Amino acid sequence: MMGMQSRHNGFDQPLASEITAPEVVADRRALLQQMATGAAGVAMASWASRHAIAQSALATEKPGKLATLLSTPSAVPGARVIEKPTSYKDASSYNNFYEFGTDKADPAVNAHTLKTSPWAIEVEGLVKNPGKFALEDLLKLSPMEERIYRLRCVEGWSMVIPWVGYSLAQLIKRVAPLGSAKFVEFVTLADPKTMPYVGSRILDWPYTEALRLDEAMHPLTLLSFGMYGEILPKQNGAPVRLVVPWKYGFKSAKSLVKIRFTEKQPATAWNKAAANEYGFFSNVNPAVDHPRWSQATERRIGEDGLFAKKRKTLMFNGYEAQVGQLYAGMDLQKFF
Ligand SMILES: Nc1nc2c(c(=O)[nH]1)N[C@H]1C(S)=C(S)[C@@H](COP(=O)(O)O)O[C@H]1N2
Ligand SMILES: [Mo]
Fold this sequence. Notes:
The structure is a single chain. This protein is of the alpha+beta class and 336 residues long. It is built from ten helices and twelve strands. Strands 3, 4, 7, 8, 9, 11 and 12 form a seven-stranded mixed β-sheet that branches. A hairpin with a 4-residue loop joins strand 3 and strand 4 (157-167). Bound molecules: ligand MTE and molybdenum atom. Residues 96, 153-155, 249-250 line the site of molybdenum atom.
């Protein structure tokens, strides 16, 4: 299914390999490979410098280079969208990260207390190779790509963000799930010392999310370390988060610390909080309304002038050609 090149709705771009001469692509790959060893050093230096930047009350300055060195346009079909990216300032100051407050402006003001180094992701459950992956090793696990994805929040707004990372499938292949593994659970940091709202009763902490194994293995599912050619700002889920572009934003868990492979469908934070409002799948679907509001349209952040038109929300957020097959035969009204 992923082999085909889609021109769905005119939103997809030709593959990087189609528009770039093969020898240039090969060159770029070699360059990335060479940099992989040095990359961790650069990354860690940037990490240290971020602490200084985070002192400013509103940390919307770019935290530091990393991705610029590592990123190359994505070769994954559908990973680039032809739409003007949201401004960096909007993408880093209008956030949902409830560990740092429920107001959109809270994370940019409060997330400077998040300590992103040292960091590791623990992989456990039904896999042949469980273990703890240090961030430095995760950065080198696979070449980074730049992917311009829409992110559509269940609340009715959207952004277009150039993320940097690689397919989660790369990590999943490394840990080798057992035949019994059917789901992947994502656990995020819950540190009451550095996250002021952990301990509040808004959600059952830690914030967790989950995907079916085939969804997690889909090449569009991104393990992201950066955006706009920079390492992730804390308010966007540093140092490593998930981005699942065809699902509502809350499936894209921030500041990941654990990935667990299970046989049974895991509980998820928003589903536990309000099961009738937030289903397990949470695929973007203009035909299935949230019980309290329509999901047919969205407001693009940065276009909120008095006369700004709402945009039509697209099935699977515009990624239907790539992911529709995952849900063939399913009743999406029931499995929302
Ligand atoms: N750990 C954690 N991850 C999270 C959230 C959160 O509150 N905590 N909010 C989610 C929601 S509702 C959205 S819309 C996206 C927002 O990502 P962004 O701030 O990078 O745009 O993050 C998701 N990931
Ligand atoms: Mo959201």
